[in-house]
Amino acid sequence: MRASTTGFRVTRAGPLALLQDAGRFGVRHLGVTQGGPADLHAWGWANRLAGNGWGTPVLEITFGGLQLQAECDLTIAVTGADLSGRLEDQPLPLWRRIKIGKGERVVFGTPAKGLRAYLAVAGGFSAEPVLGSVACVVREQLGGFDGQGRRLTDGDQLNIEIPSPNMPDTIEVEAPEQERPDYTAPAILDLLPGAQVADFTGRSLFDAFNAEWRVDDRADRMGVRLTGPPLHCRIPSLVSEGISLGAVQVPPDGQPIALLNDRQTIGGYPRLGNLTPLAASRLAQCKPGQSVRLRPAGAERALREHRQFIRQVATAINDRTSARNRST
Question: How confident is the model over 253-270, as pLDDT tens digits?
Answer without folding.
Answer: 999 999 999 999 999 999
